[in-house]
Specification:
single chain; alpha/beta; 2 domains; eight-stranded parallel β-barrel; globular; binds flavin mononucleotide
Length: 328
């Protein structure tokens, strides 16, 4: 059964990539995304601790698309403070990161490391939910060690008015590797009384079609690496044809990002790091991803970067990503 309405598509949060600058430029050039998520905030014990990240919360919408600030925490008071700050800034929803798989995070029962402890999740939500001034959605995995964990968590999630459950259909221990587990995700979807959003390995319109026919009742789709590799993916999923000359648009997008990051970093070379992170995905849409990324990666000055980008667009062809193998 096909979804009757247009699918909702969300930009997944990526630490170091889906920054304010990225979100602003992306939505200027590409359509198809219905929600944008910030990378996770952490260590928000006081309002002051947010000061150095002020820009990330500078706008509630980029070109009309709402931004959802994300927090990584196991402390209800910290989450409440973050929620209040976001509310005061005009945001209507925040997202709780229960998916981060990194051992140094998970070991401290944060991110996906909290998934094996439903009583802890319950306590946090009991303290937080009566006072929270904005909607709360959750981004989680199927579990840390085992998909059994999500089934112990569902009754906890169901006892609170969460706005959405966004599930990366992997386990924490898998990091970003191995198969997504569609069988367990399907069971969650059948048993959840909350709106559920699918996340994980949707890299092409074909992947989307396969997932959509398996999960017709899903509320939306969060796209990460596939979108970073091919910015046309959300529009393509919604049935839009790519422009006649996609590389012209990609070139403009890449140039705009370059100027925006230079400005953002006051011409500090750290701007190149941000661009290189994105190119590690974008290169996958060219006909020779290894050479393309190699060219960009080795640049150490703005002049060298500009030359490398020019060379890439003159030498290699934009093919679109289409789901070729990803490295990470
Ligand atoms: C470098 C990197 C940074 C990420 N940062 C975050 C983050 O800050 N918050 C979060 O919830 N997920 C984060 N993720 C996970 C992605 O949002 C997404 O869930 C994951 O890549 C699976 O989706 P995909 O297969 O569509 O890429 C990150 C992933 C990567 C590879």
């Amino acid at each position: 059964m096909k979804q009757q309405r247009e699918p909702l598509v969300y930009l997944a949060p990526f630490q170091g990539i889906t920054t304010y600058v990225f979100r602003e430029v992306y939505t200027q050039y590409f359509g198809g995304v219905d929600k944008l998520f910030t990378a996770f905030f952490t260590g928000i014990q006081t309002e002051k601790s947010l000061r150095s990240h002020k820009q990330e919360l500078a706008v509630t919408h980029h070109h009309g698309v709402p931004v959802i600030p994300q927090i990584l925490s196991k402390d209800a008071r910290e989450m409440l403070l973050f929620a209040r700050i976001c509310h005061d800034l005009g945001f209507e929803e925040i997202n709780w990161n229960l998916g981060c798989p990194f051992p140094r995070v998970a070991r401290k029962k944060r991110g996906s490391g909290l998934l094996p402890y439903p009583e802890d999740v319950q306590k946090i939500l009991e303290e937080l939910m009566p006072q929270i001034p904005v909607r709360l959605s959750v981004k989680c995995r199927l579990g840390y060690h085992s998909p059994e964990e999500i089934f112990a968590l569902l009754p906890v999630f169901h006892s609170f008015p969460l706005s959405e459950l966004i599930i990366h259909a992997r386990l924490g221990v898998q990091m970003y590797k191995g198969q997504t587990d569609w069988g367990s995700f399907e069971k969650v979807l059948e048993n959840s009384t909350l709106p559920v959003v699918y996340n994980g390995d949707v890299f092409s319109p074909g992947d989307f079609d396969a997932a959509e026919s398996r999960f017709p009742s899903v509320n939306g789709w969060m796209l990460g690496r596939g979108l970073l590799a091919d910015p046309f993916l959300p529009a393509a999923i919604k049935g839009e044809r790519p422009p006649v000359s996609p590389e012209t648009k990609i070139r403009r997008y890449v140039d705009e990002l370059y100027y925006a990051y230079r400005k953002n970093f006051n011409d500090d070379l750290r701007a190149l790091n941000r661009l290189k992170e994105l190119w590690s995905y974008l290169s996958l849409s060219f006909d020779d991803p290894v050479r393309v990324f190699g060219k960009i990666k080795k640049t150490r000055s703005f002049d060298a970067y500009e030359d490398a980008v020019r060379f890439v667009f003159e030498t290699y062809q934009w093919k679109g990503y289409g789901g070729k193998k990803l490295e990470n």
